[in-house]
Amino acid sequence: MDKFKSFFLEQPIWAFLIAITVFFSLFAPNFFDIQNFENILIQASTLGIIALGMTLVMINGNIDLSVGAILAFCAVVMVDAQSWPIFAQLGDWAILGAFFMAILAGMALGGLNGFLVWKTGVNAFIVTLGAMIGIRGLVFVYTQEQSLFAMNFLFSDIGMSSVPLGPLAVPTIAILFLVLVALVHLLLTRTVHGRNTFAVGGNPEAAVNAGIRVGPHMFVNYLILGGLTGLAGVTLSSQMGAATPNLGRDYELWVITGVVLGGTKLAGGYGSILRSFAGILSIAILRNGMNMMQVQAFYVYVILGGILIAVLILDKQLSSRKVRLSEQV
Amino acid sequence: MPSSDDSSGELTSGTRRAAAQPPRASGPPEAGPDPVHQQSQEALHEAEEAVVAGGIGARFRALLGLDSPDFSWTKVLAKQGILLAFVIAMVGFSLASDRFLSFDNFSSVLRQSSIIGIMALGVTIVVISGNLDLSVGSMLSFATILVVDLHDKIGPAPAMAVALVAALACGAINGTLVGVLRLNSLIVTLGMLSAIQGFTLIYSGGQNADITNQSDTWFAFFGRGEIAGVAVPILLFLGLAIILEWVLHGTTFGRRVFAIGSKASAAEYSGINRVKTVFFSYLISAFCVWCAAVVMGSRVMGSQNTVGKGYELLVLAAIIVGGASLLGGSGKISKTVIGVLLLGFIQNGLLLLGFSYWTQWLVTWVVIIVAVWLDVGARRGRLLSPYA
Amino acid sequence: MIQPAEPSKTPVLSVEGVSKSFPGVKALDGVSFEVRPGEVMALVGENGAGKSTLMKVIDGIYQPEEGSVSIGGETVALQSPQDAKRRGIAMIHQELSLVEDLSVAENLFLGELPRKSLGRVDWKKLYADSRRLLDRLNCQFSPRALIRNLTVAHKQLVEIARALVYETRVVIFDEPTTSLTDRERLLLFEIIRDLRSQGVGIVYISHKMDEIFELSDRITVLRDGTPQGVLETAETDEDSVVERMIGRKVSHAARTDFRSGEDVVLQVSDLWSRGAFREVSFELRSGEILGFYGLIGSGRTEILEAIFGLRKCYRGEIRVAGERLDKHNPEEAIARGIALIPEDRKENGLALSLACDRNLGMTVMNQWGNLAHPSREKRLFEEYREKLSIKAPGPSYPVDNLSGGNQQKVVIGKWLATEPRILLVDEPTRGIDVGSKAQIHQLLRDLAAEGYAIIVVSSEMPEIIRVSDRVLSLYEGRIVSELVGEEISEESVGRAITGVGELASTAHDSNTSPES
Hints:
By secondary structure, chain A is mainly alpha-helical. Chain A has helices at residues 2-10, 12-27, 34-59, 67-81, 94-120, 124-143, 153-160, 172-190, 192-202, 204-209, 214-240, 251-261, 273-292, 298-327; strands at residues 148-149, 162-165, 168-171, 242-243.
């Protein structure tokens, strides 16, 4: 029982997730339904995929404000590259070619952020704030302010497709999302790179002294985040069959909100993929459930803002209580 | 308690390796009696006296640090780089476009920059105190919607009063959460960004607001009026800049803001009331947002729910270009003004040269990173970071 | 000066004629130093003597300009701490360099976690190897435990175990006992002796003479970057070591300038603060210096913080000149004439990025009203530059660029500027070079003579003895003895805390957990 209690005290996001799920199951008609849960997963997937990479970057003690712009850029590349002349002979396989171009674009932009953080030593907040503005500019230069539509319907079909799993038809994007959660979770908890991520964020000095190459390490995490953001751009554009230049605005704020809800520390050194997943899922459930209850979407903003601050206060209370406990002579 | 002390030489605590210093960096001088250091101090002292004695020439030399014994052009570039970039940009645009250098053009750039500028003034104070305010964009939407919507319902003056109260209330919440509860300002104001946006939408029901009788209201004065040929928004921006510059440098409050931003715990040990100071810095930020909202509402005579969306980051960009450190303790209102104007003139110049308006975003990207890079690089004495 | 090594005992580490300079200063000048296998070599010297620089050379952080380093008789050019580690040199830092949210095992092998395919961590090997290392030090805790949940002493054990990852030939301990309790210290000494018996060479850096004489086989003394000879511990005594350290005879002339103080200006009665101290009562008179002596964690700093209103107390009262303090915040304390000169000057004393005059004005601003007074700040600067002989070129010079001693003078200046009657001084000379140290001691004596009431907290016994008129010894949050005037001596003060220490710690053990 004690273990149970301390689990929820240390990881309040799970309690919150369960609480809102129960709440909406009771009070929102049609909420408790397999189909709806699949919807929630799809709705969560775009932010969620980015949040996986963001968690790595934030455990490193960095941040990335440019993910929204990178997402837009990759979505644009994904849609546009399908009609590039070099892929002309490939037929439907042009989609695969475009897919690789989009991921590559994401990794290039993420990598550029990482490279600047590594080489200039400028605070990641500032580097990516600049990139957020600049990459959005790139998107506009590329699209000339126009929305792009995919000519090949197969592209949106893939986005809407589902995989039969027993009696269920599970949406491909939902499966992709869950697989990625598992993969990145394993990366963070089981691999040398993942463990070093904690070391670099938790005690950079110790990491340097232990011979971990801190700069390249951060670079790799930005690369991963860029690649994942590219993937999110692909899934989002395939759901819409199009890409707009203003796609992904504000996404950086939502993603960071989700990750912080999951308990990742801004200062670095602490965080978990599963809890970030829970954080993003909470946002999606709130949106979905309130929609089901026919509450105006506006309230979601207020509630989310409130929760974000509440989490911070709770965290403060908990840690100061711990200090007090350990101080007692 | 291990203590560290790099300048006085070896410590009792001994071999603490400098944080993130590369293993082979020759490091800062380790010992206390440092002849070169003292020489340089004396030389600097002389330089200071020379400034007092000399005229404008000496002041200029002091500004650039030409007489400083450890003078280097990189330092000048880092210290006054923003001014230099501003001058270069102005000269460049003047040469490239003959329409650039005209009173009308300048006045229109200033007018366009004034809203971001007014907000940036308040946020500069928050940043100097070592915090962030990401909620100003949402606050701008909220105050603008309020003032525009209520204008027709209760008249311009009461509408402005209500908007002021609302803005100050938001600022007070920020101030309480960051100042009193000592929560992380980035996340608090991120949460407030979302919450205030929600309130705005709830209040307006998702509808945009308009002022019906646009020609007959004195409210138009703030956004469209002129005094002696100068647009009111510009006067407001520059007037507020002067007042806040004075607040920062001429009052004890300003001293406290710098002290807390530089080292909060040392300030508290000195009997400075951190809670009050942080609280008021957020109130000032909210007040500036209100001013910006009045200008915005009056100029557009209508408002969208999301009019201020994204402004928080543009504001921060201007402040960063102006050279304030996000860690607090440094920054200047005048430099923020230059940062705002630099971005404004870049936008304007590029448009005049026939570039699309989004080109400025790319330029802003480069400007932000280069500006901060030079600053950081000069402080650590080398351009590249020490990360292996 | 260096004794030739006996052929049978080839030094495991030897440094020959090493010089290293930094712009404007020669930190090491022809220093030779050696450690033989199975011996504890103590390295002593005042701050600024070059100990840190020498250790950084040995650890591969700095490359010497002249001279050579050889390990096991083989000359090496160390490029980095990793390099040094691989060659068998391990450094135990005073500031622990552990990652709090990783496990013990992950910290032990930080930077070199065993890998399997796909970059996975080989947990089995990691835990097995870690267990072996921990066993070597008789550590009971699990390699899976998070560092965050360990006590300071256990964390230090992890640091030591980390030194043993490679086949270690030399372990360097830098002031390892500062944050340890007495019992933990004994445990550490046992481990050091154990390592020595395994043939490992030990370098032990400390300011504490008793530890050095308890532990070391030989002592190397450094002063101003030059070697002052190697002494056999068994054949020397403290005085001759200290003489070499400071370069002059130690005077044992008894102090005669004890003052008994006049009016009571501060009265603390039955003060309790959670987790810090209890039942604290004492009086402070104007014109006297009251020394607080105790180990870290004995509550000495916390008492000062409580008087100054930075720490909450749940019982007791504080009176200044007979009147109770009731708001308990620094503003009130300053207004009532109390000044606290904090221990950590970079954290709590100065706003480093600001100018000298701004720092000086920080404490008095509140009395100036709402407008800033740059001219008064400048006057303050001129006044205290003269009074305290602060070496700073001008009022707008950033304090960051001053030397440690001058920074400390700025801190003292900004507190004298409030015209206090009561000065609370926490570790006044930590990290300050010898010259400034004596100056600051004299300054404190002078201030007391002028009528200030002063409390000095220090963990350096000589300092307490040099300045105090009266000494209160603290142990685990209680005042355990009071010594007045001529009663004060190293012996009496030392006995005061060790004698009760044993008593208190046995009583204390029965009802608390080891967690601190």
